[in-house]
Amino acid sequence: MNPSVAQKTVAEADQSTITLRPIQIGIVGCGEVTRAKHLPKLMMIKGVKVVVVADLNQARCREVAAAFAIPLTCSTMEELLQTPGLDAVAICTPPATHADLVIAALRAGKHVWVDFPLALSEEDALRMVREATNASTVLMPGMHMRFHRLFSRARRVIQRGELGRIESVRVIWHGPRSDQQIAAWKTCRASGGGSLVEIASHHLDLLRFLLDSEIAEIFAISNNDLREDENASVSARMSNGVIVSGEFSERSPHEIQIVVSGSAAILTIDGLKFEGFYQRSIRQRPGSPNYRLRDLWNFLCRLPGGLKIMRGGGDYHLSYFHAWSAFVDAIRGSNAPRPSIEDGLRTTQAVCAAIRSRELYTAVTIPAPQPSLALTVSTVDGINQSTDPETHPLIFSVVAPTYKQKDQIRGLLESLALQRFSLNDFEVIVVDDGGREPLDAVIGPLRDRLQIRLLRQPNGGCANARQAGIESAQGQFLAFTDDDCRPSPGWLESLLMALLRHPGSAIIGPTLNGLQKDLRAETTQLIVNWLVQSGADDEGGVSFGPTCNFAGPRATLLQVGGLEKTWRIAGGEDRDLCARWQEAGHTLYFATQAQVLHDHPLTTRQFLRQHFQYGRGARKFRSDRADVTSRFRRHEKIANYVHLLLLPWQNYEGMIAVKMAWYLLLAQLSTIAGMLIESFQFRRPSTAPTVLTGPANGEGERR
Fold first, then answer.
1. Which listed site, 155, 518, 523, 579, has its alpha carbon 20 to 30 Å from 44?
2. Quick one: 23-139 is in which CATH superfamily?
3. CA geometry: angle at 359 spanning 354 and 364, to 5°?
């Protein structure tokens, strides 16, 4: 054998041995959480071995070691760190002791799991962050509730926009705690006990996890009896504007529940039930027979899997297993530690603010983290403040094409004038795409409330008009909407926050039908939203979004070519832009709070024509972009189309559901007809360019 080959084989064998060697873990603290929650789940993870436990109470330490066949015991962190072959340390002691123990373990070169809450002061949390930044090992906070199956699923639902714009959240965590044999530290807030610190901290972190937003302001009250903070109540405002209320108790029967109320649906998560995931459309009555039958069917369908979950101790206990598995994967390099130590810091800041609020009996503001994208933007309490326009560029250019819609464009401009955004930080570009009546009389009265520019051009279609706005824009970011849309007051603010969280990406916001009594308009919006949601991933990434609620960096949009000016069939230019955007290596994200209302009334004739044109646009897109379309058509699966046909019955009741199902069928038949006609035109030989008849963006083709 070639010596170099032999050496390579030995090296590979050594590497395999290293990979397969069990990760050896030591645990500091042998209290109730270690005995009942951590160790039973750690024993279930392959490739992990707990080799030592430490506790000042040696009798308790030996008892735990005997119960779980752990070979070594000691009384201090110093002794534990001397254990040969030790890879990682779990800090499961009272929160007041965490900082010093974590720093000692990191300096000894060990990976560290630290129980939650992370610390009792922002200073201690920052000490851990600084130490972790300089360390070459993993530090992961034990925020196990993020790994609860139902809360992980809830995050996916929220990120995909299924609930619409999130309006409010209610949280509850009750747990009866006996006064007998309770650890002394759990009776006092200063050492980490009480419902405000020990319990509420988990839900405060879940709020950040579910809503992908920071806690901006918090108010807390509590009462004391035999112990401090036996019951607590919290009110908070998230940086994206969502209002939160919560109650926490150590005296009430077990309950872990979160209710997320959106503009389209409400989601209730019961963390102690295997079937505890209830999603209900805003149009469904909770007491209706239809909803009750669905609830029963949900229970029966999930019963087989639920029995297996119950044998594992329930989702709450299994969340420890999944959290520890993520820690082990991070040690092995399979993924970055999630949650991060920065997540622990932000939640610690929220807990400390809640304690200050309780002491001062007033709301406390939590400073916003520094944005990851360096922009000339100053943000105070979630509201953008103006900067010097001579030295700093505009943040947004809002581009809105219009065609013969004087009243509609007036309504759009009125809604933009109500934005919670400085007038000096954004401009509005109205592109008059060949309308007969001048728009000066509409725009003139609003010039003192908005920076407006009016562009006029011959009728060239919606894509052509929007591209003219792109080329004329001066903002760092472009935001697209339509003349028949009404952005919410926080629209630009929410888009900016999402763009800062996802640098270089484009953002899609939810579009809701503003004419709910118009079932044809409601059906059209249902289909468009289905297209967006069915192409979404678990982290809020999407493969498609309509340009009536779209934002992205102007420079990047110019690099990918913007919108194709020659595209004159509605329904395909949006897909074309999204496909080219992703083909260039960029991503699309969904921002649930960046909401616009779409007021587009439709007669039956207009409804059929609109979906016919959508079919033509879809077929043209597939023909023109056959090289890339297959990668961005996540929704085109049989199961997804079945889900589309079931949507009326899942979201509506009675005759409304019947009518919606009928319109949905008509829409699909019209779309198919449009695709067939366009296929015929595409295949038919011709020596001259195809001339499309009808207005380029008339009422039957506008979004």
1. 155
2. NAD(P)-binding Rossmann-like Domain (3.40.50.720)
3. 45
pLDDT of the residue at 637:
62
Backbone angles phi, psi at 452, to 5 degrees: -120, 135
Q: How confident is the model at residue 69 (pLDDT cuts 50, 70, 90)?
A: very high
Q: CB-based burial of residue 355 (10 Å sphere; 0-12 exposed, 13-18 middle, 19+ buried)?
A: buried
Domain 146-365 coded CATH 3.30.360.10:
yes
Distances (CA, A) of 576 to 221, 569, 579, 691: 53, 12, 5, 20
Query: What are the residue ranges spanned by the domains of the chain?
Result: 23-139, 146-365, 388-683
Do 81 and 110 contact (CB within 8 A), yes or no?
A: yes
∠ CA 505-507-510, nearest 5°, is 160
Q: Rounded distance, CA 38 to CA 104, Å?
A: 21
Q: What is the rounded radius of gyration, in angstroms, for the C-alpha atoms of the chain?
A: 29
pLDDT of residue 266: 93
388-683 CATH pick, 3.65.10.10, 3.40.190.10, 3.90.550.10, 3.10.310.10: 3.90.550.10
Residue 683 binned pLDDT confidence (cut-offs 50, 70, 90): low
Residue 232 or residue 187, greater confidence: 232
**Backbone phi and psi for residue 702, each to the nearest 5 degrees, phi listed first:** -80, 150
Per the confidence metrics, is the pTM higher than 0.70?
yes
Residue 341 backbone phi and psi in degrees, to 5:
-65, -30
End-to-end Cα separation, the chain, in angstroms: 70
CB atoms under 10 Å from CB of 181, counted, come to 6
pLDDT, tens only, 535-564: 777 677 888 889 999 999 999 999 999 888
pLDDT for the residue numbered 415: 92
